[in-house]
Structures are given as C-alpha cells and as structure tokens.
Amino acid sequence: MAKQHVVIDSEEIHATGEEATYRLASDAVELTGKPAWRLRQYEGRAQSLAVNRMAHEFHAIGDVEMKLPAGSIGRNGFLLPESSPATNAAPATAQPALVRADDFQFRPDVANTNFNVAVFRDHVQATSAKGSLSCELMTIQSTAQSNRTESVVAERGVVMAQGERRVTGEKAVYTAAADTVEVTGHPAWKMGQHQGTAEVLAFNLKGDSYRATRRVEMRLPPASFGRTPWLLAKSGVLTNSSTGAGGATTPRPAQPIEISCDEFELTPDAANTNLNLAIYRGQVRVRDVDRMKLSCEFLAVRGRMLPGTNQVEKVVAEGNVDLEVHESRGERRAQGDKAIYTAADGEVELSGNGGVKIAFVDSKIEGSAMGAKAVYAGGQDVLELTGNSVLGNPVLRTQDGQVWGEVLVLDHANTTLRATGRWKMKLKPESLKKTAAPAAPKPGS
User: Fold this and answer.
1) Buried (b) or exposed (e) across 245-263, using 16+ Cβ within 10 A?
2) Distance between CA atoms of residues 1 and 269, nearest Å
3) Cα-Cα-Cα-Cα dihedral sign, residues 54, 58, 60, 65
4) CA geometry: angle at 406 spanning 402 and 407, to 5°?
5) Domain ranges for the chain
6) Are 340 and 316 in contact (CB under 8 A)?
7) In this prediction, what percent of the chain has a pLDDT beyond 90?
8) What's the pTM?
9) Helices and strands: H and E segment counts in the chain
10) How confident is residue 445, by pLDDT bands cut at 50, 70 and 90?
C-alpha cells in the first residue's frame, strides 16, 4: 500500500491519487482519495479507481466525471443533426464532451480485441457545446489503435436536447460508418413547434435529415398547410372559428395541425438547400381542426420547416386524394388522384385518371362539379373545370340547374358562370320562375 500523492505512469494511463493498493496476483492497482487520470485521450476523476494492467481493464466508481475528445459522441460532438446554417457559414467543428456518471469501465471488446469498449452506467449525463444527452447506460466502441469512435449506444430513459430540439426514447444507436442515429423504444421528438411520435426514428447526420417509421403521429404549427383553408378565398386571418347560438361565429386561436402516416422524412430540398422537403407516405391523414381534413397515400410539403420558421411554399398530395374543408365561410369537398397547392396565390390544382369531383356549400351557392381537371384560384375565388377526350366535358350542378362545356369557369366572388366551346345548360323550372317573376311593388305605390 502506498499513501500520499501516488502516481501511476504507464504507456496508456497516467493516474494520481492519495492512496494506492497493489494486488500482485492480479497485477491490479486500486486508487482512492479523489483519483484523477488520463487514459489515452480520455481525462477524468472519480472517488475510486481500479486498474487491472494484466487484463487492460480500467474501472472508476462514484461521481465519475470525464472529458471526451471531439468526435467521441457523434458527428461534430453530438447525436442530432445541426440546424441548417447560412449558406456562407463556416463548417461546424467537432466539440469535446463532458460526461458524468456513477460508474465507468474501459476494457477490450470481448467480441473483437481490435476494439475497446467504454461503458458509463447510472445517471449518465453528457454535455457539449452542441447539446446534451442523458441516459442510464452509454457504451462507446472505439478502435484499439486510433481510439476512433465506431459506435455509441445509449439506453434506458434516453433524452437528447439541442436548443429547441428534444428527442426521447429507450435506446439510441449511433453508427459512425453510416453517420446515422436510430432511436427506438417509443421515440418522441420536438423540433421547435414540430413534434411527433413513432416506433422508429432515424437521423442522417451527414445529410441533416431524419425519418420516422411505423405509426407516425405528428403535430405541426398552424399555417403549415397555408394560412387559408384550400378551396376558399385567401384570407389573412389565421384563426379557427366555431358556430355558436344564432349562427354567430366565435373566433379562437388557431390550433396545431395533426398528421398520421406510416412513414415521414424531412430532408433539405435538393433544388434549394435553404428550404426543406417533408415527405409523408402510407395512409396519410391530415387534420386542421375546424378548418380542413386531407387524406391521401403520399404527401410532399416544400418550405422552411426548421425550428423558429414555418413557411410553406408548395404541397403535393397523391393517391386517393380526399379533401374536406369545414369553416364558417363555407364547406368544400374535393376528390381526385392528385392535388397541388401553391401557397403564394392559394391555387389548388386537382386532377385524376378517373376525373375529379368537387362539392361546395356556402351562403352564395350550393353545388357540385366533375371534370378531368379542376384549378381553383384562391386570390380571385375562381374555379375552372376542363375535360379531355376520354372523360368528355366537365359538368357543374347548382341549386338552379346544371351546365356542360369544354371549359367551365365559376367566379364565386361575383356569382357568375362562364362556359366555352360546345356548351349546354339545363335550368330547373323554379329557377326560371324566380328569374321571370316581377319585382314586388313597393308600399304606397
């Protein structure tokens, strides 16, 4: 036994402590009295330290605090993709990490001695300039020769936080070769105002993207699909409204948008890296409370969808598209194979191999329409219908009758209808009577 300012110096480790006990049979040394050490590129301290030089094992117990070199825990020192920087910003550099735990072990990997394994147990907290990671067990596998991290596995109560981003789950696996992180065990995430849950959540750190699969449920901020419900005239007011007694509408703050699907992916837009592309696949259901419902099989949303921003530019829905709009200004329903929404002008283009169907009800008009293609201009509140050689001419029906033509244009704002080409109209008798009926005489005339 050695006491007072004990120093151990070898090829791989340098350690100091107040007291040391050497066990000859196992060639092991135990240090107590706030030992500190430098193990390869790791630096740390704890309440006690055991070094087995024969087995090349290292064990620290109690109030473990360690400094890990840059790149030890993920790309650039963390396990979440960074927020997209300005295009002229300097590339991010890896940062060292500070890890605290109750217990730490370092030993050769029993499955492959070309690797070493560093294991942190109980109340594990890792922090860096990039963010923080907490869990109950963290295992880092590194190459024996260069100490380069090959994988990081965090388990039990995993929480990763970075600014407005937060991810939780039961297990997170970082693979350095692919530069990916996979989170399982009921993963949940919050990226600014965007949040969700799934069965598997995977991050591509190299591509600054992430993907959620199986039973995906998400909540997006209001206006994620435009400030105005589709198929209604553009409005600058972003509120939901409910109908009260006497038909009066009561405005209330806009609600989050709810989405469910089989798979979701968010990536930088290939055409413009300042934008993002959100892809939803499989049984896509969108619910904008008191405003709009949308179902389809594929949905692509292009815009700025990073924390702190929410600017949609374009939305494409494909496969059994069914759109419902329920608002105090009116109700709409549209069905087809594909819908394209452009936020700048509130335009909705609807098409389908078997044609499209649109129904509308409001204080001005009640009716329905069918055609090969429909284009609604939200800025002008105008609906245009066209046909083709297979489906024939479009048809529009209202409470007054119906009209056919090569092109039909319903100007809802001015309550007018225009038909071009070979057109025909069929009016209901009661509508003709209304039109022909003389005005009622004024009192006293």
Assistant:
1) eeeeeeeeebbbbebbbbb
2) 65
3) positive
4) 80
5) 1-55
6) yes
7) 53
8) 0.85
9) 1, 32
10) very low
H-assigned helices in 189-243: none
What is the C-alpha separation between 191 and 186, in angstroms, rounded? Answer: 17
Question: What is the CB neighbour count within 10 angstroms for residue 100?
Answer: 17
The greatest distance separating any two alpha carbons of the chain, rounded to the nearest whole angstrom, comes to 125
Tokens found for residue 16 = 């100091």
Contact 418, 394 (CB under 8 A): no
Assign a CATH topology to domain 1-55. Answer: N-terminal domain of TfIIb (2.20.25)
Query: Which among 378, 391, 287, 257 has a CA at the least distance from the CA of 336?
Result: 391
- Yes or no: say if 377 and 346 are a contact pair by the CB < 8 Å rule: yes
Residue at 125: amino acid letter: Q
> Is 90 exceeded by the pLDDT of residue 93?
no
Q: Cβ–Cβ contacts within 10 Å for residue 311, how many?
A: 13
Confidence grade of residue 12 (pLDDT, cut at 50, 70, 90)? confident
Q: Would you say the C-alpha torsion 391, 396, 397, 403 has a positive or negative sign?
A: negative
The total of other beta-carbon atoms located within 10 Å of residue 225's CB is: 24
Beta strands in 1-114 (DSSP E): 2-9, 13-23, 28-32, 36-39, 42-45, 48-52, 57-68, 97-108
Give the separation between CA 110 and CA 136, rounded to whole angstroms: 22
